[in-house]
Amino acid sequence: MPSLSDNLLPDHLRHLSDSKTEEILKSNESELDTSRRSLADLIVGAGALGISTFVHAAILIMLGLFTLTPEILESFNIIVVEPLPEDLQRPEELITVELQEDIDPATELTNSQESATMAGLPNAEGVSQFSEPTFNTTVIEDSPEETGVKMVDLTIPASLQANLMTDIPIGSYGDPREIVDNLEQAIDRMTQEIIFMLEEGDVLVVWLFDQSESMRNDQKEIRERINKVYAELGLTDGAQGDQLLTAITSYGTGYFKHTKKPTADLELIRQAINDVPIDPAGFEIMCPAIVRAIDDHESYRSRGKRQMALIVVTDESGEPDNNIQTLEMAVATAQKMQCRTYFLGREAVFGYPHAYMNWRHPQTGVNHWLQVDRGPETAFVEQLQTNGFRRRRDAFSSGFGPYEQCRIARESGGIFFMLPTVEKELVGREADKRRYELKAMKPYLPDLDSRQKQLTMRSNYPLRSFIWQVIMDLNPLNEETARIIELDMTFPRQADAFLRRAREQQEKAKIYINYLANAQTVLEEAYPFREDELNARWQANYDLIYAQLIAYQARVYEYGAALETFIRNPKQVPQLMPPNRRFVQWALRNRPELSAEEVSRPYIDRASELFEKVIELHTGTPWAERAEEELERGFGLEVMPVYRAPLPPRQNTPNAPRIPIPKL
């Protein structure tokens, strides 16, 4: 059965599409196949592919300059990704990445023969094996319609006349997004919810705490404020005696009860909260824990016909695969038991499943980025998972909570309280985190229907099917795909090793840029569906991804050209930099100047125009912020030396057991 990927990828790439989610939801396979068949027929009949192929042939000819000698071909090893040690591995996902904040690329180079060392690459005599670089200037002499990068224009998205919360009887759904300014405000708002319930009758409140290491910074403040909450509730008439009962539970790899039975004793409640442990395994079974917490206390609720509320305190969305399998069970349990479910949670990462936290090893002093499951805000990812070279490491705020938590809160009549700020250790977004305006984001609400329903209905929305397939075919979180499309950004300092690695990566760049070109053509053919799409969120998805596909072609070409420039003109760099840093490797760094402007400039200009359009059409949203970041990145690249100071001496007792890197 043909799929969209059959039209996007070369033959040897077609089998790499990530189908894990579809396998879990395989009961809808026939519907999805029908949708793909009709879409594939549309693409096969489109003539634009031939035009794009002709245009991008010029680029492939230029990439052909990055040729290989037979001797180098014999020494190739295409798979250059080195696995982590076994004790640091996690199934399917990279857990830690060494933080290189102590690595400084040189900004000035010396030509002193006494203090400097040649990069070790072939000198002028050795470079003669490569032909002089030439550039195809016809791409900028042709009319804009013939450049391959000006095919469609973007228009203002349709303003939604309704959203997920309209035309629904009041009280049927909860609030999937209640933005609060701080943790104290969230707790106070939750206190009011309990007071309102007490006015209706007796109440049973079950607290469910996430045991992850990433909760450590918040745990003390949460516990102190919870104590204050119950002190305040104890002063109200409605909370006297056993009208308000409380149970404390927690979850990590397993589920734990910290109160033998619900109690009104504040001292027992405080002690139970203090007993919540930290689970070092870093595995959170959130949805099964919600089911257990409700089921374990259902008898206390029904015995006195109490109202029941579950309050989940977490900064993660739980294990992705486990969520897919058990989310609807949690929703059904909360609805059946009439248990309002509230979340004190964090904002999801925009269109990406993970965030990364900075953790410094107390013994070695080495910093690590630790993976946190913090998204996405939707049932299926709706954004590219690559930054153009490798898998994303950004932490753009989505404006919404994680999909699973918002869905449970909405379906059970509860509230998702979105805590305001990203932790200071979160990658890349320390100072410029901001809350998106509710009015601006209203048309962009994510679909909170079940995954099953969304998958079944996908055939009714052709644009969404096109976009989703492009994302899956370009997904570096799929390790098989990553070996094809992820490009190295660091290279060995030894001459022969650098040359081999550079040639390998240039060959990968040829394949990658060809795919990006075909993906661009497919989205251009899908543009009529974009015109018919009434949902502003999906219009924004199309607008941003289309611009990125064009921008990434320019960046990948500049990547190969920057490596070629360095090979032909290797730099001289000092081996040591004060006070005690040593030259350890080469790295590609962004710069404004271009290495192959004649070829890449038309693509850069068109991509920049489209990013500006995204900013204009989707002001005040994460799509606009992402477009701004793409423009700020620039398009040029340069090979620069990297220096690193020696690791600090091991602290504490030298013979003490090594502290393992935690899993969040």
Describe this structure in words.
With 664 residues, this protein is an alpha/beta fold. It is built from 22 helices and 17 strands. The strands form four sheets. Strands 4-12-9-8-5-6-7 form a seven-stranded mixed sheet, sandwiched between helices. Strands 2, 13, 15, 16 and 17 form a five-stranded antiparallel sheet that branches. A three-stranded antiparallel sheet has the order 1-11-10, with no helix packed on it. It is globular and about 80 Å long.
Structural descriptors:
Rossmann fold, 664 residues, 2 domains, 17 strands, 42% helix, seven-stranded mixed β-sheet, disordered N terminus, five-stranded antiparallel β-sheet, 22 helices, alpha/beta
Record field, number of beta strands: 17
How large is the radius of gyration? 27 Å
Decide which structural class fits the backbone: alpha/beta
Count the DSSP helices.
22
N-end to C-end Cα span? 40 Å
* Helical content class: 40-55%
Which stretches of 5+ consecutive residues score pLDDT under 50? 1-22, 24-51, 57-151, 155-171, 427-433
How are the strands of the biggest sheet laid out side by side?
Answer: 4-12-9-8-5-6-7
Identify the overall geometry.
Answer: globular
**What number is the mean pLDDT?**
75
Whole-number tally of structural domains? 2
| Fraction in beta strands | 5-15%
Give the biggest beta sheet: 7 strands, mixed
